[in-house]
Write a structure and sequence with these properties.
The protein is an alpha+beta fold and 508 residues long. It has 11 helices and 4 strands; from the N terminus they run αααβαβαααααββαα. It has a 4-stranded antiparallel sheet with strand order 1-2-3-4, with no helix packed on it. The two termini are 33 Å apart.
Length: 508
């Protein structure tokens, strides 16, 4: 109570003397430090080139992938929900900004009634005539009123400004989450697209393997009937062909399931999508790595989810200021101006009136600790927001490091995988030639075939791992998004910095 009286004694005179601006209470820091390493510990592709990563899938020169990502963004309920949250936050920002200004309402009313006009008895008249004349007559009266009423809460202790600042931070956070939803959808769609392409490559490997085994089985059956091949060898060849046929059927089913996932993401009809996939090249080279700064903090600041968490701290700080201000007096000023017109028996009379006031001051005296509890709860939420922000930064550093490690590892394995397939193919061709001339057994041929198939499958898997590492790096670096006020590094990235279509005018 002593603190309340001290603030009131200091701020009320100051408020009236300085245009009723009042005294704002101190808030916790709106920005906090989050520890980041001085440099990346994972190897940086191309020495940490600062070229743009924004909309990197466009660099693949694959119009179908760009089309699929655009369709997925349009069909995504997460993006639509995030856009709705942005619009809602804008409306809240308008409301909190308007609370700092006086409100003005227009009023109008009309009424009609009657009034009795009494007349006194003439002197010397009879009693009966006097009684009759005292009843008088009734006259209709019309009353018309119009006016303006205003009310203004003076923001003595910064509660309304804190509410406005919190709403502004929440608007920025909602907008960042919308961008993060777009980045997530683009990454998910790219992964599904690359998985579809990898599945088709694996399907071609399985088809080639199945044809080879089926031909070997056919030749062994003919040789067995002619008496040149043992029945056991013919049975082994048939078993090998059946095994390959089963794998081919399984691979086709996996590709069908994978395609349905891509259909669900993009919202494109399956038959239409099949035609688009068939008309597009099956494999394209990955673009050069870009937008990897040597200092992690520079890269982490590009992530919309980290920026959203940072604004969450600012919003929580403003909420603390608002909750603290609720514990102090509130000053409200009212006023009105109006005009009233009376109409009686063809005559009319107008009156103009205005008032300033009442000037009301409400002082919290006893609330059972409710306001203090609300302030303590706001401080607890602020501490939580700080913890969440710092955890997001640590997670962001981890995701970037992991993506860099995986990208470097897959790059280093690519040449080995190509070399393995090339040499296993040469070994298989030689074994098959020896088998055709009777110098190698069927067991040797099948063993060489299995080894080649495993190498081909591993190379396809590695190619998919590399594309997934690319997508993970793209996503962990913010997907080309730049926080407001920072210029994008490429014109193409401007699409990632466009706000939702719904625009609402802001207020002070």
């Amino acid at each position: 109570m002593r603190r309340l009286r001290l603030f009131a004694a200091l701020c009320l005179p100051l408020g009236f003397g300085l245009g009723l601006s009042g005294c704002a209470l101190n808030r916790p820091p709106a920005q906090v430090e989050a520890p980041t390493p001085a440099q990346w510990h994972a190897p940086l592709p191309h020495g940490g080139s600062l070229a743009s990563l924004a909309d990197w899938w466009r660099q693949l020169d694959d119009p179908l992938l760009v089309e699929l990502i655009a369709a997925a963004e349009a069909a995504s309920p997460n993006v639509a929900s995030a856009a709705a949250r942005v619009a809602e936050a804008r409306f809240t920002r308008v409301q909190t900004g308007a609370a700092l200004l006086p409100s003005l309402d227009g009023t109008a009313s009309a009424s009609r009634g009657t009034a009795g006009i009494a007349s006194g008895a003439p002197s010397g008249g009879s009693a009966s005539s006097s009684s009759s004349s005292s009843l008088g007559a009734t006259t209709p009266i019309t009353t018309l009123q119009v006016g303006l009423q205003s009310k203004w809460e003076v923001d003595l202790f910064g509660r309304l400004r804190a509410d406005r600042d919190a709403a502004q931070a929440k608007l920025g956070s909602a907008d960042a989450k919308w961008h993060d939803a777009r980045v997530s959808v683009a990454a998910e769609t790219a992964n599904a697209y690359f998985a579809e392409r990898a599945c088709q490559q694996q399907l071609r490997v399985a088809e080639s393997d199945t044809r080879s085994r089926a031909e070997t089985s056919r030749l062994n059956d003919l040789s067995m009937r002619a008496g040149f091949t043992a029945p056991a060898d013919a049975a082994l060849a048939r078993a090998s062909a059946a095994d390959a046929s089963g794998r081919l059927t399984q691979q086709r089913a996996q590709c069908a399931v994978q395609r349905k996932a891509l259909v669900a993401l993009s919202g494109i009809d399956e038959s239409t999508l099949e035609q688009k996939l068939a008309a597009s090249p099956a494999q394209r080279a990955l673009p050069a790595v870009g937008s990897i700064a040597s200092v992690p903090a520079e890269a982490i600041s590009q992530r919309p989810d980290v920026y959203s968490a940072e604004l969450g701290v600012a919003s929580a700080s403003a909420d603390v200021g608002s909750a603290e201000a609720e514990r102090y007096p509130k000053l409200t000023i009212s006023g009105s101006i109006g005009r009233t017109q009376y109409r009686v028996s063809g005559l009319q009379q107008s009156l103009e009136n205005w008032t300033i006031g009442p000037v009301s001051l409400s002082v919290p005296l006893l609330d059972g600790g409710s306001r203090k509890a609300n302030a303590d709860a706001a401080k607890a939420r602020y501490a939580e927001a700080v913890s969440i922000y710092r955890a997001n930064v640590r997670q962001a550093v981890r995701e970037v490091e992991e993506a860099l490690v995986n990208l470097d590892a897959t790059d280093g394995r690519a040449n080995d995988a190509d070399t393995a397939v090339k040499n296993y193919q040469a070994s298989f061709d030689a074994t098959q030639a020896r088998y055709s001339s009777g110098l190698a057994s069927l067991f040797e041929l099948e063993d060489s075939r299995r080894t080649l198939f495993a190498a081909q499958t591993a190379r396809v898997s590695l190619q998919r791992e590399r594309t997934e590492a690319w997508v993970a790096l793209y996503r962990s670096m913010g997907g080309g998004w730049s926080r407001p006020g920072q210029p994008s590094e490429s014109s193409e990235s401007s699409s990632m910095n466009t706000t939702p279509a719904a625009k609402v005018a802001t207020s002070p």
